[in-house]
Amino acid sequence: MAVYEIMFAAEKLEDQIGVLIDKHYPHLQDFTIRLIMAPKAWKRSGRVVLAQARAGSVRERVLFGVHGWIEIAEDIWEADPPVLSLELQEAILDHELSHFEVKETLVEDVLRLATVPHDIEDFLGVIQRHGLYREELQALGVVVQGALPLEEKPA
Ligand SMILES: [Zn+2]
Hints:
Strand content: 15-25%
Number of domains: 2
Low-confidence stretches: none
CATH topology of the largest domain: Zincin-like
Shape: globular
Number of helices: 6
Radius of gyration: 18 Å
Distance between the termini: 46 Å
Mean pLDDT: 90
Number of strands: 8
CATH class of the largest domain: Alpha Beta
CATH architecture of the largest domain: 2-Layer Sandwich
Bound molecules: zinc ion
């Protein structure tokens, strides 16, 4: 059995998350979201995954006071020389925070976090053949039209 070493994230990363929460996710301010480092990036459905968010279980919440987890691939995140720009790191963390939604628990007056799926899931080939055939894709189209690539965004 492999030993899975869990490391807590560096302070810089905690600060980055804190800034994002204050700016875009004030509803998450009262929740404890733990950042943990996985030693290496991993693959899901053939794609390299650099980070993932998961709502804490009832046990994790009750026993440890942790409402959610964000796991980050240390080999890519801390690569020297850097592989990810600060802007890209921020975009990734912003993405992971978007996976959290506040829900009521079965017990009254206690709130918990739930993990929500992505707004959009589709295939490029289908969009090429059929256009923006769903409402979500049309909304994406509007956002994409006004968006610039990360490296061209004003700071
Ligand atoms: Zn995601």
